[in-house]
Amino acid sequence: AQKVTQAQTEISVVEKEDVTLDCVYETRDTTYYLFWYKQPPSGELVFLIRRNSFDEQNEISGRYSWNFQKSTSSFNFTITASQVVDSAVYFCALSGVNRDDKIIFGKGTRLHILP
Amino acid sequence: ETGVTQSPTHLIKTRGQQVTLRCSSQSGHNTVSWYQQALGQGPQFIFQYYREEENGRGNFPPRFSGLQFPNYSSELNVNALELDDSALYLCASSFPQGAGGYTFGSGTRLTVV
After folding, report:
1. Distance between CA atoms of A42 and A96, rounded to whole angstroms?
2. Which residues of chain B lie closer than 8 angstroms to A103, CB-CB?
3. Residue in A46, A101, A106 closest to B42 by CB
4. Bridge partners of A21?
5. Tens digits of per-residue pLDDT, A56-108?
6. Right CATH number for A3-114 from 2.30.30.40, 3.40.50.150, 3.40.50.12780, 2.60.40.10?
7. Surface of B (1-20) touching A: CB under 8 A
8. Which chain B residues contact residue A50 at CB under 8 A?
9. How far apart (Å, rounded) are the C-alpha atoms in residues B46 and B19?
């Protein structure tokens, strides 16, 4: 069975601090996708990144970076120099690569960036 | 290029009633998935439609049903509403080649009283 665990329910940091959101996943598939989504108060899920299981390179996009470690089944997300606009709920998710595969979401981490 | 649009944005229904939620997929996307997000939880997969047919279903009872139209838009119908059906319902559209590029709408907030 597939499962995504985000152990941090809620995190608060002061603006400009770095923060890491943890994600651990379980799957029996050898090929899969991992995702991070941001959900602001308006409700829509904003796509941040998709990572194929074959690609273990870490990725950086501006202040965002992702650390994919297949050996520990983790896909952690770091925000550097956090800003108030980063306040949101962040979801880690997992999916197979077939057309009818669904996305399995974690329960999310609510991030508060304090001014 | 328009994104995914959902209507209505908010809805209040009484227990036992029926509800229909609507979703217009992003241009070029022919696969639509529906998710239910209860308060404080991650989205849960309800079902997916591809070429107007159900193409995968999560652990939801038959009173949750759907349709996809030739223009790829979709409806989610819920019969005999229960209080626990209160949630944010999210629609996502994509191309059919796997989970590569889901675009989510802003959702419909359903409250059952």
Report:
1. 28
2. 33, 35, 43, 45, 92, 99, 102
3. A106
4. A77
5. 888 888 999 999 999 999 999 999 999 999 999 999 999 988 766 789 999 99
6. 2.60.40.10
7. none
8. 99-101
9. 15
